[in-house]
Write a structure and sequence with these properties.
Blueprint lengths: L2 E5 L9 H5 L5 E4 L2 E4 L10 H5 L5 E5 L1
Antiparallel strand pairs: 1-4, 2-3
Length: 62
């Protein structure tokens, strides 16, 4: 199973919670926003979705 990870830059405040909680380092902070730089590594655990207080992250099955 593979997953598509998207971050809504308008909602992301760059808190870094998703970077810290992701077990496979999908995210990096770039220019003050979270970027899914290793989206192909996503396990679909949705830990990032749970910690994002601004609902900026979407994880979808492909």
């Amino acid at each position: 199973m593979s997953y598509e990870v998207t971050v809504d830059a308008d909602k992301c405040v760059g808190c870094g919670e998703c970077v810290d909680v992701c077990p496979v380092q999908v995210y990096e902070l770039q220019d003050g926003k979270s970027e899914p730089v290793n989206g192909e590594e996503c396990l679909g655990c949705e830990s990032c979705v749970e910690v994002c207080e601004n609902n900026a992250i979407t994880v979808s099955e492909m």
